[in-house]
Amino acid sequence: MKRRLLLAAAPAFAAGCAAPVPADYASERPELDLTRYFDGTVTAHGLFADRSGRVVRRFVVAMDCRWNGPDGVLDERFTYSDGQTERRIWRLRQEGGGRYTGTADDVVGRAEGQVAGNAFQWQYTLRLPVDGRVIEVRFDDWMYLIDDRTMLNKARMSKFGVHLGDVTLAFTKG
Asked: Pick from 42, 47, 30, 36: which is nearest to 144 by CA?
């Protein structure tokens, strides 16, 4: 009897543990339009925390963003707290239906994302230099538009399904 009850409850429990999807935010406002938000200059302040929650690195990103129809370029210039600098140039494409794809020199294959309401989920694999070698790390990146100027971003980093840490950013437009 206990086993049957447990099996009957399993689908409800699993549904309660399901990860969020962009559609969960479809009714949230203000509505995020990536082509409008990432147009012009945007500054981001961020940090990387390891899986224990310890802040390992802080950084500022100066972004120059522009669109030509469905094609966008996000030119990101990172300055880390230790003085190191880095540049990433995203080439984005608006695919329709709230879907976006993107590439960058240090991205493996193609990034894919979906906008709904005030949220954007973006997933990709990034080549990261770590201790003199390069490793490939999976990002599950979520952005939430707070108002016309502010967007918050939290990205979960993993390798082989193992949580490595989180990147948190606050974007300010203009």
From this structure: 30
